[in-house]
Amino acid sequence: MKTLFLIMAGLLVTTIGYSQNAKKLNKSGDVKLEAKDYAGAIEDYTKAIELDPKNEYAFLQRGIANAGLGDYSKASEDYDKAIAINPQNEEALDRGGYAKAQLGDNKAAIALYSKSIALDPIDGDTYFFRGVAKAETKDFKGALADYNKAVELKTTENEVYVRRGVAKAMSRDFKGAVVDYNKALELDPKNEEAYLGRGNAKSETRDLAGAIEDYTKVLEIEAGHLGALFSRADVYLKQKEYAKAIADYDKVLANDAKNEKALLSRAQAKTAAKDYKGAQADADKVIAINEKSDAAYVYRGIAKMKANDETEAMYDFDKALELNTKSELAYVYRGNLYQNKGDHTGAINDYTKAIELNPKNDQAYNNRGVVKDEIKDKTAMEDFNKAIGINPTNSEYFNSRGNAKKAIKDYKGALLDLNKAVELDAKNESAYLGRAAVKEALLDYKGANEDYTKALDLNANNGAALFSRGVAKTKLNDFKGAVEDYDKAIAIDANNANAYYNRGVAKQKIGQKESGCQDFDKATELGNTSAVNTKKVFCK
User: Fold this and answer.
1) Euclidean distance between CA atoms 526 and 32, whole angstroms
2) Which of these, 213, 215, 208, 241, lies nearest to 229 by C-alpha position?
3) H or E stretch covering 441
4) For residue 503, which of 525, 479, 527, 475 has the smallest C-alpha distance?
């Protein structure tokens, strides 16, 4: 087997026969090359070539010396000359292929590797390097075929498995990628690239905890590894661990304060954590670095929209589209703003524009479906189906479709979708609330109570959830528990007439008649029309 892997690790001296007249110079060049005196070696090989212009060996060795100096352009020229003298010089073909790949001419590299393989079809190293060149040209199918052949020929270097893992990931075979990264790590337990690649693949398969473990392992091997910090932050963001995400983005920015991508990602995390001023400040930094960053205006607009500054948010979305008329993100979020303002036509138009720009924009389909559902447009379900077809791992899309099915009293279908939503994201508060409402409609008050509790575990200050759990507890004859929930709901919203009314009923059930009657009076004061008659029944 030839020694292509050693091209990257070090330089070898070959033993091809050469012209007797240049023998002394070639030997001198070999000694200098072995000692990494590349300039001295080049000088000797050049003299040997002057004595014998057909000296194939001297051209090959001078190419190796030039490569040692990092001059792949001159190295490539020398390998080409060696090949011209002897088209069957496998080493010149292999090294020539590597040099051309280093120069970015991967098509030429593939051609040379293919000629070498034709001469020696059982050399796994050459298949590997041809695979690398094919991957660089985005021919991942061809790259996989070459990596498979390299493995079949028992090329055991862990780099083969790492590269094949990358090719599988690029082909969206993430499970297969994980298998290859596992093999690479068996061979080299400290291979950072394998941990990083495996983390990325696990993230794509929603093994977020596993991805975090792999990124953390990279950081144990190399503290401050920016790629691992960035990737781990992105996964923390997916996990809704906003403080941890921000902490990792902070570390990235400590090393590169002008990293636009990190600033915008941190802005997203801060927006999700309701630090709207901090998010706007990060977007402002990006705009100061690059005033034509349409994405910065979008993310600043999102933060402003969340802070209820709709006028300024609209300005930012419009500015983003002025800078980039093909910004899908700007159309989607401006559509969201139109939806918030009750402009259903404007929202649908923007979502439709995003879909025209990218027919696989799952978020635009979902959001358009939500607006259509609000206006009772029966084609809403088609949009939800399309969004889920494009991205079947997004919890929110199942939540949207589940709520739409709930609205048309397809409770069985709604339950299936909402079950899937919480399976995909155990922190989807909205999905728990929707599923609780479906269970109530199916008279499963125990199940409804459990789901309201899960939603409240995620957000203890959700007054609507507290009120609804109080209703479920009343149905379960847990009147004391119901009163406690209504107490909390009223503490959050002192003008909740229905909470006073329901609390009044529950209090009657546990003997707190006077206090219950006072709740009926308060409910009446706040506009609950049922309280007057109910008081007549209980408060004689």
Assistant:
1) 95
2) 215
3) helix 429-441
4) 479
Counts for the chain of helices (H) and strands (E), in that order: 32, 0
Buried b (16+ CB within 10 A) or exposed e, 400-420: bbbbbbbeeebbebbbebbeb
pLDDT digits (tens, 9 = 90+) for 379-391: 999 999 999 999 9
| 61's tokens | 């060795």
DSSP 262-331: HHHHHHHHHHHTT-HHHHHHHHHHHHHH-TT-HHHHHHHHHHHHHTT-HHHHHHHHHHHHHH-TT-HHHH
Closest alpha carbon to 201 in 183, 168, 178, 180: 178
CA dihedral 269, 275, 277, 280 (to 10 degrees): 10
CA distance 436 to 462: 14
What are the angstrom distances between the C-alpha of 298 and each of 119, 245, 278, 322, 366? Answer: 56, 20, 15, 11, 19
What end-to-end distance do the CA atoms of the chain give, in Å?
101
CA distance 152 to 160: 11
Q: Write the CA distances from 220 to 32, 57, 191, 192, 195, integer angstroms.
A: 40, 46, 12, 10, 11
Three-state SS string over 349-407 comes to: HHHHHHHHHCCCCHHHHHHHHHHHHHCCCCCHHHHHHHHHHHCCCCHHHHHHHHHHHHH
Per-residue pLDDT reduced to its tens digit, 222-274: 999 999 999 999 999 999 999 999 999 999 999 999 999 999 999 999 999 99
Tokens of 74: 């001159």
The pair of structure tokens assigned to 286 is 């990006």
Query: Which pTM value belongs to this model?
Result: 0.79
Best CA proximity match to 405, nearest among 395, 397, 396, 415: 415
265-312 pLDDT, tens digit per residue, is 999 999 999 999 999 999 999 999 999 999 999 999 999 999 999 999
The dihedral through the CA atoms of 276, 279, 285, 288 has a sign that is negative
Number of C-beta neighbours around residue 475 at 10 A = 16
d(CA 101, CA 136): 9
Within 13 Å and on the Cβ side, how many CA atoms surround 412? 0
d(CA 118, CA 269): 53
- Nearest CA-CA partner of 56 in 90, 33, 79: 79
Radius of gyration of the chain (CA): 33
Residue the block writes with tokens 């507890």:
473
Tokens 């493995």 appear where? 151
Q: Which residues of 306-316 are buried (b: 16+ CB within 10 A; e: fewer)?
A: ebebeeebbeb
